[in-house]
């Protein structure tokens, strides 16, 4: 099945906001086929662990250093398979 939309979310130390964003994305997807890619820039607040535990269907890139917003987005874009890409800024 083709993926309609790839949602790329870059995160750095905002676990609560990330969780709310992911809940909103999955709730709003309706009939779209989506993939969610979270790129965590070496957060110290257990963000990556929360994604693994609560959102196992999300693709997680767990960087071992903060690469910055642009590089992190490029990481997500490289693996995205959707016909369309949404970058959360």
Primary descriptors:
four-stranded parallel beta sheet, 4 strands, 3 helices, Spore Coat Polysaccharide Biosynthesis Protein SpsA, Chain A, 89 residues, alpha/beta
Topology record:
Elements: E1 5-11, H1 15-28, E2 34-40, H2 47-54, E3 59-62, H3 69-79, E4 84-88
Parallel strand pairs: 1-2, 1-4, 2-3
Main β-sheet, in a few words? 4 strands, parallel
- Assign an overall shape: globular
Indicate the mean pLDDT.
Answer: 96
Look up the CATH topology: Spore Coat Polysaccharide Biosynthesis Protein SpsA, Chain A
Number of domains: 1
The top-level CATH class is Alpha Beta
Beta-strand segment tally:
4
Helical fraction equals 25-40%
Question: Mind telling me which CATH architecture this is?
Answer: Alpha-Beta Complex
Strand content: 25-35%
- Give the uncertain stretches in residue-range form: none
What is the topology, as strand order, of the major beta sheet? 3-2-1-4
Outline the structure in words.
- The chain is an alpha/beta fold.
- It has a single domain, classed as Spore Coat Polysaccharide Biosynthesis Protein SpsA, Chain A, CATH 3.90.550.10.
- 37% of the residues lie in helices and 26% in strands.
- The chain has helices spanning 15-28, 47-54, 69-79; strands at 5-11, 34-40, 59-62, 84-88.
- Strands 3-2-1-4 form a 4-stranded parallel sheet, sandwiched between helices.
- Helix 1 links the parallel strand 1 and strand 2 (34-40).
- The protein is globular and about 35 Å long.
- The termini are far apart.
């Amino acid at each position: 099945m083709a993926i309609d939309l790839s949602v790329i979310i870059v995160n750095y130390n905002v676990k609560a906001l990330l969780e709310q964003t992911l809940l909103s994305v999955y709730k709003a997807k309706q009939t779209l086929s989506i993939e969610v890619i979270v790129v965590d820039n070496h957060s110290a607040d257990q963000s990556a662990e929360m994604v693994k535990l609560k959102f196992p269907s999300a693709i997680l890139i767990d960087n071992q250093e903060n690469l910055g917003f642009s590089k992190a987005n490029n990481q997500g874009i490289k693996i995205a398979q959707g016909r369309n890409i949404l970058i959360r800024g």
